[in-house]
Specification:
The chain is an alpha+beta fold. 28% of the residues lie in helices and 38% in strands. It contains 3 helices and 6 strands; from the N terminus they run βαββααβββ.
Length: 104
C-alpha cells in the first residue's frame, strides 16, 4: 500500500468553514477512483496550508491520479502549486473497521 500526502500553501488564508465547503465540493471526484482506499482532507490551524492524505492500493494507481490535469485543477481551484509525497505503508491500523491491513 502507498500513502500520499498532498500539500498546497494558499496565497491567502481560508477559514475552517471555507475549507470544509471546498472539500465537500471536490470530495465526489474521489469516490470510485481505482485503487484509492481512503482520502482525508487536511487543513492547518492558520488556514494557509491544505491538502490530503490518501491511502492507495499501489503506487501505480496513486501515480495515475496525479496527472498534469490534476495539478492544473489544483492550480485553478486553490491558486497555488501542489506537492505530492509518496510513502510505503506496510501496515495500516483501521479502528473503524477493527482491522489491521498489510500488503502481504
Amino acid at each position: 500500500m502507498i500513502t500520499t500526502i498532498t500539500k498546497f500553501v494558499l496565497p491567502n488564508p481560508i477559514t475552517y468553514d471555507e475549507a470544509r465547503d471546498i472539500f465537500l465540493s471536490t470530495s465526489p471526484n474521489y469516490q470510485g477512483v481505482s485503487g484509492l482506499l481512503r482520502k482525508t482532507y487536511i487543513y492547518s490551524e492558520d488556514g494557509v496550508t491544505v491538502g490530503g492524505v490518501y491511502l492507495w492500493n499501489s503506487r501505480q494507481e496513486a501515480e495515475a491520479m496525479y496527472t498534469e490535469e490534476w495539478f492544473t485543477f489544483v492550480r485553478e481551484k486553490y491558486g497555488t502549486e501542489a506537492t505530492v509525497t509518496y510513502f510505503e505503508s506496510p501496515v495500516v491500523v483501521d479502528n473503524m473497521m477493527h482491522e489491521i491491513l498489510t500488503d502481504k
